[in-house]
Design brief:
The complex is a heterotrimer. By secondary structure, chain A is mainly alpha-helical. Chain A has a single domain, classed as MetI-like fold. Chain A has twelve helices and two strands; from the N terminus they run H-E-E-H-H-H-H-H-H-H-H-H-H-H. A two-stranded antiparallel sheet of chain A has the order 1-2. Chain A starts with 7 loop residues before the first helix and ends with a helix. By secondary structure, chain B is mostly helical. Helices cover about 25% and strands about 30% of the residues of chain C. Classes of the chains: A mainly alpha, B mainly alpha, C alpha+beta. The interface between A and C is small, with 4 and 6 residues. Chain C: This is ABC transporter ATP-binding protein. Chain C: InterPro entries: AAA+_ATPase, ABC_transporter-like_ATP-bd, ABC_transporter-like_CS, ABC_transpr_FbpC, ABC_transpr_MalK/UgpC-like, P-loop_NTPase. Chain C: GO terms for molecular function: ATP binding.
Amino acid sequence: MLNPKPSLKTTLHALAYLAPLLIITVLFTVWPLLSAVRLSLATRSNFYTGRVTAYGWANFGALWHDPDFHRAVQHTLLFTLGVVPASVLLALGVALLLNRLPHCARFFQTLYFLPFVTSTVAVSLVWGWLFQADHGVVNGLIHTNIDWLNDPHYSLLALILLCLWQSLGFNILLFLAGLNHIDDRYLLVAQLNGATAWQRFWHVTWPLLTPTVILITVNALITNFKVFDQVYALFHGSAGPANADLTLTYYLYQKFYIENQTGLAAASGLVLFGLVLLITGLAGTYFHHWTRWLRKDAR
Amino acid sequence: MKKLLIGGRYLLLALGAVAMLLPFVWMVVISLQPAATTLTLPTFAWSSALHWENYRHAWRLAPFAQYYGNSLLVTATTTGGQLFTSILAAFAFSHLHFYGRRLLFRGLIALTMIPGELLLIPNFITLTHLHWINTYAALIVPWLTSIFAMFALRQAFLTHPQSLYYAARLEGASDWQYLWHVLVPLNRPVITAVGLLQAIGSWNAFMWPLIVTNSPRLRTLPVGLMTFTSQTGTNYPLLMAATVFVVVPLLILYLALQKYIVAGITRANLKG
Amino acid sequence: MEVTFQDITLAYPHQAPTLAHFTWTVPDGELTALLGPSGSGKTTLLNLLAGLLTPDHGRLLFDQVDVTHQGMGQRNVGMVFQDYALYPHLTVHDNIAFPLKMAHVKRAEREAQIRQFAALVRVTPFLQKYPRELSGGQQQRVALARALIQRPAVLLLDEPLSNLDAELRVTLRQEIRRIQQATGVTTIFVTHNQTDALQIADTITLLHHGQVQQTGTGHQLYHTPANLTVARFIGSPRLTTLPFAALAPALPDSLAARFASSATLVGIRSEALLATPTPIPLLTTQTMRLTAQDFLGRDIVSHLRWHQQDLISTALPPLAPGEYPLGLAAPGCYFFAANGRCLWTGGTDHAES
């Protein structure tokens, strides 16, 4: 790296390039973050002005005792557990089927990826029709008579199925990219060493693919923690029958937009942020160790 | 044996593809059924006439032209803005030396972990202060930058040898000229990819436009479609026709520019 | 344009200074080779010239004008990079046009100049091609044209031949020489390859450990090296050295006595060891043992053993291993002091004075 010494002049010069991004980021990300923390600690405030007159932990206390919040956390975790492992495994399976397919790989990839580019609201509305009790396609196909969208026992499953369908293409794409990164020669050597297809997958592909798996899992976890659009559209602006699909983000929306409980909403947002940080932190630690291990290996 | 294996792969993939495609097929099929009929799966007739007039009716029932205009405006301006601010910042982070460069960069990357939903509340309050609720500014200004886009572009900008930059500088190009005459044209595929991803996100955005607008004049397509459901109730053929409006532009864009979108996602997520 | 480095010091953080009180002058209008092994500081000098680096102390002068703190775009330096740095998205034509475009030169004038310089470096047939469609040598020529078209005060060539195969290297060496002479631009040619430097340059400066070891023509550097570093770096095969004390008994008495107290090392070029008899005046004739011969095309490298010392000669005919009386010629025989300074260069005594 040349002329590595920054000076006041170079800094001002760089700032001119950074200014547009920094101004908007400070205004709409940094400042709101601080404000959200402040609001979550506010026990008395004006909804419209955001003026806070008293501070305390009351909002977090209220969340702790709010059965709706418990339900929201529980649903979010259940939902994520329903979507993520299935989506990751299915995507891996499809990616392995697609990988080095002689013909039509591109065609299939295009099809699987369609839901990702489609408006969530639009696909949720379509699925709303598919899930109908009386003449729904889903019931028709599996010969059941479930009222998917009105039975609290099934409505979360309906949401899970929708999100699974929607997220698959994106994860397949990432897996394909990960598989492409693996040097063919490793597999060739393994084949020369007499490894069977299964052995090659388990001892060569899988270990080399692990970082991709982690990346996709973390990405999927974070995305699904924040599920909202699908809930809103599938249940027409409600949180499902008997709040059976009340998720964290929906809870936040409800508290803020419907009930004007800014403090509670901000506090629930911070809990969501905490979850995201926890997951990213764990993944970050793993990646740190993994890259260090790789470097050691290279030496 | 090998042939059988390949055949099996195709069979499984085809089954999956049908599952992926089915909702889209139904969407179109239903949109062409007679309006306001209740449909039962086994009985509705394929042979019955196709009711294209559903599209006309749906289009008239709600100001979809207005929604389209809004969506186009918001998508174009936010995507353009994001690209512009990200290109500038990505250049600074990849080519310029300044105090606090590393710290600032890491700080920005850390910000991407914040869920947008958390920022919704204070941003709403800020916009209320600015009297921006129910304006285009509310739909556009907060989205004029993207740290993801900046990161992806910086990674791309870093792949060019430094000698290229030094050569241009020695030949009398300023930083600004180098950026727009060399770096941007060289990275056109990446910039297209990043722009397309941002455009998809912007076109499909729902929660933010839902919250900061409540007049039909400002609704974007997804919000407009959602409000349309309350008007049509269970009139699924009309609803599906409207859904087709929303979905089709992006499907065309995707089919036309698929290779850029695929490259963009791969680059933004795996090369970090 | 004469280029002067005046007492320049440059240090990277947490490292010993790369350059300390460095002073060097590049003569106007000549092709100067800056020769040195990697890590000798030649890239640092190049970057200082281009303005990619700013020295901590000292001044850089272009014809007595202080350019030390001028930016890269201001000092009008042309540079050909090792990887050529051609813009991949521009045609050859547009690559060459780039500096003129940046300077807002009018279109007609621009086209005329492009034609002129494309003809000079002989790339006219490729003007509409993209860099990736060209061979390494052609890319090199385009890079030269692009650097020259802005009529630089100084032209810098950074290892311009290192990515080319042997045959192209020879051609392009001549081409660079021709183009430099046609334009008369002060040119600094940075290389670690002594053959490139010897063949191309008016003057060679040998750099080692951030210090100028010697400046002179190739002939001067080879035949009258200033010190051991120069003598070792220039010439192939490498200079053989042995302790002065080992050779002293074999030398003429007057010579041995004259350097007995000052010289510690003797350097012998491979061509200074000759088969006897020979018409060339000899310092001494000794019986040496030939252990092996390597046949490298035209050259024969003979490995010799004498009084526990290994010597090399390239002046012997094919011989069977065995003992032979061999002569040591004065030219190609150097005496060095303990600090490496050259005391005696086989009779051509420039270093003595």
